[in-house]
């Protein structure tokens, strides 16, 4: 298990450096200082690090976020039929005709304008992801 491998001294917790290594091992990237600071600020000061239970909670949340982001990417790719890396109004109309054929075109245009944050006529993955996340928080 990653926790044991990173807790080389058998302290029973992961230090700041141990945590960074664990994230690299599990997720393939080095966490930012902000991410590590955020995690370490929630640690009980008496333990000096992240206990196994806390580590498992962090990993579970990161896995869920990763899975959600992959689903969003999958939906975006399904709409981006020309693999351009962005969606046009036509892409939106086509997608909405498939999933909500009775939706008025004016509504589709309003949704597109709302999602196209920088009004460049293209919805980037970032715009798309933001819109879906914003919708999640509103519900």
Automatic annotation (TrEMBL):
SMART domains per the UniProt record, alphabetical: EFh
Pfam family, one: EF-hand_8
Residues annotated as transmembrane: none
Source species: Macaca nemestrina (Pig-tailed macaque)
Name of the protein in question: EF-hand calcium binding domain 11
UniProt cross-references to PANTHER family, sorted A to Z: MYOSIN REGULATORY LIGHT CHAIN 2
Keywords tagged on the record: Calcium, Metal-binding, Repeat
GO molecular function (one): calcium ion binding
GN (gene name): EFCAB11
Domain EF-hand: 1-29, 67-102, 103-138
Domain of life per record: Eukaryota
């Amino acid at each position: 298990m990653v926790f044991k491998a990173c807790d080389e001294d058998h302290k029973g917790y992961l230090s700041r450096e141990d945590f960074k290594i664990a994230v690299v091992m599990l997720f393939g990237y080095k966490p930012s200082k902000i991410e590590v600071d955020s995690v370490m600020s929630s640690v009980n000061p008496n333990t000096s690090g992240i206990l196994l239970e806390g580590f498992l909670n962090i990993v579970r949340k990161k896995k869920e976020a990763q899975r959600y982001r992959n689903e969003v990417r999958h939906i975006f790719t399904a709409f981006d039929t020309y693999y351009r890396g962005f969606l046009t109004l036509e892409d939106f109309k086509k997608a909405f005709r498939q999933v909500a054929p009775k939706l008025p075109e004016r509504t589709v245009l309003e949704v597109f304008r709302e999602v196209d944050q920088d009004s460049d006529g293209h919805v980037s993955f970032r715009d798309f992801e933001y819109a879906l996340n914003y919708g999640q928080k509103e519900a």
